[in-house]
Amino acid sequence: MPELRRDREDRPRHRRRLIRRAAGTGAVASVASAAAALVCSHLENGHAARPMNAVTHIVDGGEPPAHDGCNRRNTALGFAIHTAASVWWAAFYEGLFGRAARRSPARALGAGALIAGAAYLVDYRVVGRRFQPGFERYLSGRSMLAVYAALAVGFAAASMLRSRQTAPKAERQPHARR
Fold first, then answer.
1. The CA-based dihedral angle spanning residues 166, 168, 172, 177, taken in that order and rounded to the nearest 10 degrees
2. From CA 39, how far away is CA 67, in angstroms rounded?
């Protein structure tokens, strides 16, 4: 019985660790996918922020806007919503695959691709039009693929960075003398 009690006592600590890992992983993935969206939009539209601006239609309603808004409000709010969604998906990534993903770059990328694919399906096949990101309005299909691929790479990169930080010092310096 003492083991069961200890398990219950560890749950809040485990949740806090999961939330911290999801926040970090989500932030990295958000920056990676937003950067891909900005570059692709700049190449296709001559205006980098259109995909981020479009996300604000979730709050404001109506059609996804292309303009930055007063004091770049649409860009900032769009990036904030995008980051919150990335953290949400990172919680699934960390909760389902976090430990395994930190062991191998291939596993990390595979897990990131699986979660990014799930994010795409939910974003464009499950939720109503009002809650879709709006990227599709200003990005081609190829660019949409790049954005979600960057999300997957961001998840994997965060895992690999975390594994390097938590690895013993001898493992981090493979060429060090022993």
1. 170
2. 17
> According to DSSP H, which parts of the chain are helical?
2-45, 50-54, 57-60, 73-101, 105-121, 141-166, 169-172
Spatial distance between the Cα atoms of 99 and 14, rounded to a whole number of angstroms: 13
The SS3 of residue 124 is: helix
Give the tens place of pLDDT for each residue, 108-166.
Answer: 999 999 999 999 999 999 999 999 999 999 999 999 999 999 999 999 999 999 888 77
- Closest by CA to 83, choosing from 28, 39, 153, is 28
Query: Cα(152)–Cα(129) distance, rounded to whole angstroms?
Result: 23
Q: 3-state class of 132 per DSSP?
A: coil
Neighbouring residues of 132: CB distance < 8 A, sequence distance ≥ 6: 123, 124
Let me know how long the chain is: 178
pTM for the predicted model, two decimal places:
0.86
What is the Cα gyration radius of the chain?
19
Q: Look up residue 97 and give its two tokens.
A: 């695959």
